[in-house]
Amino acid sequence: MRKVILLTLCLGLLAAPAWAFSVDFSTGFTPAGGKNYGATLNAANSANYIPADLTITARSGMVATDEPLTVVGKPGTVFWGLANDLVGKNDYSGLGVQDSGAGGSKGISGDVAKADKMEALIFTFANPLDVDSIKLTLAGVNDGDTAVFHVKLSPELEYTFTVFSSDIVTYDFSSFTGASGNISQFAVEATSGHFIVSGLQYNVPVPPTVLLLGSGLLGLVGLRWRRRKTDV
Fold first, then answer.
1. Distances (CA, A) of 194 to 75, 197, 200
2. What Rg do the C-alpha atoms of the chain give, in angstroms?
3. What is the pLDDT of residue 123?
4. For 111-120, how does the pLDDT look when each residue is reduced to its tens digit (9 = 90+)?
5. How are beta strands 18-24 and 182-205 bridged, if at all?
6. What is the C-alpha to C-alpha distance for residues 163 and 172, in angstroms, rounded to an integer?
7. What single DSSP character describes residue 13?
8. Residues 120, 148: Cα–Cα separation, whole Å
9. Between residues 120 and 12, the one the model is more confident about
10. How far apart are CA 31 and CA 33, in angstroms?
């Protein structure tokens, strides 16, 4: 029985090309209405609800020429909870941006026509992941809202989408032209409108050390089996 369990574990480690993660930001926050989590949201300050390899930060007060992944001096804070101030929408729960003093609206705000009225959330991964595996869900969007995705490849790629649907929309990064390979960071920016991030899905490749462990364990199982066969 132990041999079967060990063999199953080894084959599972070798067969899994990636570990899949799905984070539902519409729940998991405390207190009930949510709160501002400061400059960084991660596993440590979310009671491990956020995956250990993911860190979320924010930018606020940007202008049209700023790039969220590289701009300096435009810090924001991460709000996680009930965003009850989305323009023309029902209440949605998820991630938003507030200014460095934890003030302002709770969603990701954008107005390219006004100075210092553009915000972004930045998702940073400790382990590089396949950009094709990412799916990001926005909620509380209105027709005409514009979301810009900044993908940290070499060179950095930028995708601008004007939303032509309402309430909830999911973006599958595998459909982004030219976006392929592994990334460690991406950002979603509002240049017009007001919305939140309600969900994230992604796959992290199984580390080589884990695959090596699986191969080693499988080898031990085979060696033990051969020895038993010889003894018989």
1. 18, 11, 18
2. 22
3. 97
4. 877 666 899 9
5. antiparallel
6. 14
7. H
8. 9
9. 120
10. 6
